[in-house]
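Hey forum,

I'm writing up a methods section and want to include a predicted complex as supplementary material. The small molecule is S-adenosylmethionine. I've pasted the protein sequence and the SMILES. Can someone with a working setup run it? I'll credit the forum in the acknowledgements.
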Amino acid sequence: MKNPRKFWIVNEDVEKYIRNTLKSSSRFLMELEQYAEINNVPIMTKETKCLIEIIGWLQKPERILEIGTAIGYSSICFSNFLAADGSIETIEIDSDLALIARDNIKKADLAQVISVIVGEGTDVLTNIDKKYDMIFIDAAKGQYETFFDLCSPMINPGGIIISDNVLYRGMVARGETVPRRKKHLVERLDQFIKKVMEDDRFDSSLLSIGDGVLLSYRKDYDE
Ligand SMILES: C[S@@+](CC[C@H](N)C(=O)[O-])C[C@H]1O[C@@H](n2cnc3c(N)ncnc32)[C@H](O)[C@@H]1O
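Reply by user p_vandermeer:
Happy to help. C-alpha cells for the complex are below, copy them as they are.
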C-alpha cells in the first residue's frame, strides 16, 4: 500500500515525509490494511498506530476496551503491547464487520485474547461494570461526548482514554469553511474537545497526528 491518505490535516509534505519514515507493518497487518483500503473500511492511520504502540509499550495495559472494531485491525495491533494474560474487548455495531473481525482475530490466533461485542456503543457501555487501563474511542463521532462520559468512570487511575479522528479532516479547526451538512458534527466535536481539555480528572493533550488524536490520562482523582 503506497499512500492511502486522501486528506491532510496539517501539511501534506510534512505528513507524507513522516509517513514514509514509518516501518512497514507485518505481512498480516498489511493484508488487513489492503482489505480496508479496497473495501473502504476506515481504520486508524499508521501514524496513529505508531503513537498508540509507543504509549502501549510504556503502559503495558492489562485490560483494553475499544469502541469501533471494524475489521479488527486496531485490536490486533494492540495485542502486541498487551500485558501477559491481558485482554481486549471491542464493540462493533455492524454485525457483518464483527464477523470479519472475528475471522481476522482467529487467523491471528488471538481469539482467547480479543472479544468482539456486537452492539451499539452507548448501550454496551451502559451495561459494562469493569475497569480498564486503556480505552480507544473510534466510532460514531457525533457520540464522542457520550462515549467519553460513560468511559470516564471505567478507566483506572494511570490509565488513558484515546479518542481518534477528533479533528475530522481538519474541519474542527477550520470553523467557518466547513460544508453546511457537516457543521453540526464539527460543532459537537469542538464542544467535546473543549469539555475534555477542561476535565480536572484528566490531563489531556490534543495532537495533530493522523485525523487528530486526543490523549486523556486519568489522574488519581476523588470523584
Ligand atoms: C473508524 S472505524 C474503526 C476502526 C478500527 N478501530 C481500526 O482502527 O481498525 C469505526 C467503526 O465504528 C463502528 N461504529 C459506528 N458507530 C458505532 C456505535 N454507535 N457503536 C459501535 N460501533 C459503531 C462502525 O461500524 C465502524 O466499524
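Some notes you might quote in the supplement: The first strand starts at residue 63 and ends at 67. The chain has nine helices and seven strands.
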